[in-house]
Amino acid sequence: MIKVIKNEKEYEDALAEISTLIDRDPDPGAPEADRLELLTLLVENYESQAFPKRVPDPLEAIRFRMEQQNLKQRDLVPYMGSPGKVSEVLSGRRPLTLSMMRALHSHLGIPASVLLRERKSQDEPSDAIPWERFPLKEMIARGWITGSNRPDKPEALLTQFFAPVGSPSQVAALFKTTETARTTRSINKYSLAAWTARIIIRAREKPPKADYKPDSVDLEFMQEIARLSWSESGPRLAQEFLRKHGIPLIIEPHLTHTHLDGAAIMYGLDRPIIGLTIRHDRLDNFWYCLMHELAHVSLHYGQGFTHFFDNLDVKESNDPREQEADRLAGSALIPEEEWNKSPAKSLRSPEAAQHLARKLRIHPAIVAGRMRHEAGSYKVLNQIIGQGKVRQCFPEISWSCK
To answer: Are residues 240 and 382 in the same domain?
Structure first.
């Protein structure tokens, strides 16, 4: 007979029985499955009273263990079944099964009671989402939502818009977290969620034919892309190059109050997606933004993160992940040893920029951008930063909205 847990011994006994039941993997509806569910509820009730400190949810626990043991997403495949299932679980799109819980508990030592919290709620009702806070009028004006002139009916219109992204819980996940947003300005998380969904939807409408190979994005890969900058159509060539390697690069102007330059999106996907807004129509800005988001892919894809949002007007970040991405992006464009021995480091002249650019086989705008950044002056070398040269590479985008 199952009773309310009243002390530490009863708590430990319940945890031991939970582990045993997980190992047996009972079928749903079987007496042992019902007992497992009831024991879990009793354990959670005891923990809430005995341990006021918040117990982590399953995804927090898995990500913590990944970071602790330096595990990548592919390292979880033996416990979850496939790369796609791992990605979906870490993004919250797929619930943990009992067999997954058993494997994670046995091999990674994650407490069974923590893993079982996934069973409490795997979705939330759509009426829990504040639909009226999304920028519906702007989304309609952009053509993201068509066939309606009724912005006074936000839930129906937005439910249809977000449908390709997933269930209400996936939609809620988009606007409930901005911890990976690099910005010092107030950011409208509902606008950010809508923009993110738009990027995902567009990427899925025309997915690359090539599969994405994990760990394919490294310094050499990024430098190869940077050398495409010599061409006047370099931004478009970069988009095509990435597509051939299974990575969609989606250009989409930012929504009001997001102040966004770019994002690396890994939201329950079998491939990363790069989104750029071309908020600043300059070649130096385009190439740095692209390298920065690719750096996130190189360093952080498969680590349990779902997205990184970047306002790169913020020159320095306290986030170590952003600092890592800054360093790798900088090295991909201009290796530090080349910068240190170049006249461009001390001379603010177009000739110095062009000299180093020729040596590295990159566009002078990239060198000029580094020179302006190092000098802390953005009024120099305006003639070679490629002002107005990016958006023209993407004539299919409606730039009139920005």
So the answer is: yes
